[in-house]
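A reminder before we start the practical. When you read a complex entry, don't treat the lines as separate problems. The point of joint prediction is that each chain is placed relative to the others, so the output describes one connected object in space. Small molecules and nucleic acid strands, if listed, are placed in the same frame. In the example below there are six entries. Take a minute to note the order of the lines before looking further.
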Amino acid sequence: MKPEIKSALMGVTTATLTTVLLKKGVRFCYVNGARPIVPGNFTRIVGPAFTLRFTPTREDLATVDSWSSPRSTRAAIEDMPEGCVAIADAMGLTTAGIFGDILCARMRVKGVAGLVTDGMVRDGQGVIGTGLPVFCQGYVAPASVAALNFVGWQETIGCGGVTVVPGDIVVADGDGAVVIPQAMLEAVTEAAVEQERLEGWIMKEVNKGLALPGLYPANAEHKARYEADKAAGRA
Amino acid sequence: MKPEIKSALMGVTTATLTTVLLKKGVRFCYVNGARPIVPGNFTRIVGPAFTLRFTPTREDLATVDSWSSPRSTRAAIEDMPEGCVAIADAMGLTTAGIFGDILCARMRVKGVAGLVTDGMVRDGQGVIGTGLPVFCQGYVAPASVAALNFVGWQETIGCGGVTVVPGDIVVADGDGAVVIPQAMLEAVTEAAVEQERLEGWIMKEVNKGLALPGLYPANAEHKARYEADKAAGRA
Amino acid sequence: MKPEIKSALMGVTTATLTTVLLKKGVRFCYVNGARPIVPGNFTRIVGPAFTLRFTPTREDLATVDSWSSPRSTRAAIEDMPEGCVAIADAMGLTTAGIFGDILCARMRVKGVAGLVTDGMVRDGQGVIGTGLPVFCQGYVAPASVAALNFVGWQETIGCGGVTVVPGDIVVADGDGAVVIPQAMLEAVTEAAVEQERLEGWIMKEVNKGLALPGLYPANAEHKARYEADKAAGRA
Amino acid sequence: MKPEIKSALMGVTTATLTTVLLKKGVRFCYVNGARPIVPGNFTRIVGPAFTLRFTPTREDLATVDSWSSPRSTRAAIEDMPEGCVAIADAMGLTTAGIFGDILCARMRVKGVAGLVTDGMVRDGQGVIGTGLPVFCQGYVAPASVAALNFVGWQETIGCGGVTVVPGDIVVADGDGAVVIPQAMLEAVTEAAVEQERLEGWIMKEVNKGLALPGLYPANAEHKARYEADKAAGRA
Amino acid sequence: MKPEIKSALMGVTTATLTTVLLKKGVRFCYVNGARPIVPGNFTRIVGPAFTLRFTPTREDLATVDSWSSPRSTRAAIEDMPEGCVAIADAMGLTTAGIFGDILCARMRVKGVAGLVTDGMVRDGQGVIGTGLPVFCQGYVAPASVAALNFVGWQETIGCGGVTVVPGDIVVADGDGAVVIPQAMLEAVTEAAVEQERLEGWIMKEVNKGLALPGLYPANAEHKARYEADKAAGRA
Amino acid sequence: MKPEIKSALMGVTTATLTTVLLKKGVRFCYVNGARPIVPGNFTRIVGPAFTLRFTPTREDLATVDSWSSPRSTRAAIEDMPEGCVAIADAMGLTTAGIFGDILCARMRVKGVAGLVTDGMVRDGQGVIGTGLPVFCQGYVAPASVAALNFVGWQETIGCGGVTVVPGDIVVADGDGAVVIPQAMLEAVTEAAVEQERLEGWIMKEVNKGLALPGLYPANAEHKARYEADKAAGRA
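Here is the predicted structure of the whole assembly.
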């Protein structure tokens, strides 16, 4: 993705992105259940989606030996480009962790921007220790094969109620993760940057004591004041 | 699949199959939520799995126009061979039906053995009217695109907690649907047929008034009696 | 509501209505959990919504004495006009029944078209015996006050994931219940009647053996054939 | 239990029992999830509770061999007295059936009044075929050991949100199952019989066209009319 | 509310309040799901309930334009008196936030004591930054209109399984939020203050090494000791 | 338990234990829902299980008076040996806390190693203040009797999807709690210690920049290197 787009999105909250996407007709863009692994961490990540797909475990398929097969999570990780956001469909399961500290450490070494899943990771302390930004439902002890079977990567997936196509843009912060369809990236970014600026100005007005009706959303009078402030470099 | 295997499995309950699979090390073989569309219908279907995969709806992808695309449920249905069991990963969603009466009518015309899903169908009366055996969570009014996005067919899927690989064997009856890994088909069928025979004999003994301990599971004495009855054509 | 609208809607499935509403921009119109009290009953009801609202039980409010108060379910029922569809927000609770046989019998006597709820009724045999069409999650033994507190009637409510404003139109059949916003009634009815006619024609084509691509949705060629058949009174 | 109590309770709905128990201070008496195995069957059973307890499966405990142990479901069944209602804590799990057709057939032969569980049974067709009244969440294929470990019998259990002490009275019908604490049995039965009588009289009044306020609950005037009718043998 | 009542309740845990309310016959007083927005924050708030009600989103009602209507969340906030606790029925939905940082900032400016909801807020970092005490299920990115439709304020609502009447008293702390029916306020406060004092004394005894039986609950001997200590100013 | 086993397990993560148990055939060993009461606390506890069992509340059984009975949680606590891990089956309920600060303080005084439950505790601030390590779903205000009835102790229980037999070994840390069947204790401990050592070595290799395939799981070449490093005291 273009550096200026990435840089612009680093300054936009996922809350703003969902509002902009809703106005542009996309309601299903928010990944339910993907929370920062350290609660209250508001760091943001931005990057193109690298998808991973799991199905339920099956004793003849999801064996410990499968970890050595060419179609394994290990092989998928080696295929991840620098700067991507790995996003994994774990069917929302909370009974096993998709990755532990070793896999996350390797992703960190490779420069992966972060990991997003509607499921869990495992070995929470170790994963946090790698410094890889992870957005998930939490961490549990059981290994992936206890509940999950790895199928493949870079396929269209569902994750937390959102369809993700490889190459869509993922933005995640303290409020969770949002998927921007690739074709809408520039329009969404532009509108979001402006929305952030406007809301920052409104917030200041509220803190001055202004009442909400007419201000948020802004009516003609307040909009004019905002435009004036913007022109004068005050918003 | 071989006709004699199919014919043997038509005489075996899914209850027996899960027990046989568990003894052979496969616990994750039962499709949660797939019930006969007419409650209390105990008709059985058997056939190789033809898989379908859905992800969550997304306004730019799951459009009414997408129904005309080459990668549509319509195209998938035209690709189904006679005798297969269509099995669809609908992520267990109950808020939209994957297929309605027209699609089911086409499947019926093409000789599809049945439809299994962890989700819903729609236009229940119409679907039942086609005569296609359907195993699902029920029927609702909303169309698939209200909640689902069709991705493709003949991929490995998860359905109701089971991983299904195209070509696995699906057996469904009043107790639900079971997936037999292709490589285990003959061994499972043989063991299941014998298990049914033994349980039929035990049931007669119970109805004669015998107590359960020692009989079910059968101890050496009862096993000998069963073998004798079997040899004599009485079991 | 106009008799010709009601009569037209009596011939349209809820499945068709959800498709028409989705095309007109309303996705949230289907009442999750409201099923015919007798499974497999496909009788349809149509009528303006008469809303009822419950909150959770509270020992000082939801007393047996509250049944005699002026703000009781009893008073609400006496206020129901003939032909309305009573629709009750029970917060989807399955642990108590909102109404039993006596209240349903009174509704039946008053000519209420039916009862729709996202919760339960109680005394299933008695309620079925009254002949009142009821759409609910099922029936349980406990009385409303065991889990619910009645608040009032003819307010805006949520029911099974849909907002219902008094005077919206409710249509319910074997596939569940759909809410049509009052302002869209005529446009939705007109489009739905045409959609039913077209789908009836397509179903006949499928039963003749036609493949789905191009037929459903119909391409220009098939559309022309349909229009010709319609003009000739054959669709 | 005394035959006259049993006979009286055979004429009382579980709906009435929950109302009577609530008035006497017991709100937690209804077994969530226990439905007649054949939907719409309104046959009633009454009997003292014979409890069974399951915990989650564990591979070293819930083996197929465990079915032959002295602490098995088989041994428990042999211990059941005629006329009891077997009630099993299956933790509400829907992924395995606690009993199949052979165990239910043995219970039927022994004169057990019925089986109540917050979980599932298996081999639905076979279980229905035994004629044993069963109240459960439904039937699935997997055997108990796939998800459950049998612990013992005649202990205090929880079942569907109700604590059941061996010897409590279980009444089950189309609306589900209710547990009457043993010490309250006579008082509850007496009040319930009277309540049924009164509600039968009110139902007739409603069918004559009377309005609900004042009638249900009955005010002084209506109560006097009821008492007069009762004295005259008309209620 | 009287300042001395408020001040007394500021010294009482919600845990103690639920016990006192249970003893006085009110079991349904605890708001499920309302947690401090910063986990582990044990700050307490007390104030009269100012209620807000949401229903599910509907595209023709819950528009971005609706934010400017006279019946909007903005108008409701302007109507909130200083010291009230805003409590919002969001139907327990976790897919959209009812309020973001701007609305919470305005509430803070107006002197609202806090916000309680069974749902979510959005823009977690911004909301926490306002300093308004918030009790909710967490924070997500999507705006209210993605899932919710605002109906009105100062109506009776259900929130997290509790019915709240405007004017009831809400107390919230690290253990969640409790609703005290207005009529019971003084009696509950008095009993709760005494209960806290007694439990503080018991805690000291436990830390001295005393065993629990006889001490908690206190038998006659321990009660006498407590009364003596209280009289002597040691409890 | 032997001090050297306890000491060895204090150095092993629950993540490693679940992998070792899975390889030895035990999949059902992880307690769903038991999390450190202070999120992000990674302290570990190890000890033999002392079990507690709850069923749903019932007004005639779960009274405040029951707290003084010989079969009370108080009596159970007095029976707990030093070093045990109390593990309570609360049926996963989140609507009441099993223990508050006073009971936890007593457990702390008695030297109990920690408390594990699939439910909740209450008075979170007070419980945390006692210093007792607690693993639970969280803390809420309501007392146990609001939702739970205490049955007894040192029985076989289910907790968070695991069967626990008194004397099994419980290990809990930031990833949750694992139950080791008593008979497998030594074999599991030995394998786990070796697994931790190997994974520590692999982690270092990953941090040096090695790719995952062949390394994790280790192929023959890497295994030889590990063994050499181990022999040389470098792993």
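Discuss with your neighbour: Chain C is about 30% helix and 25% strand. What might explain this?
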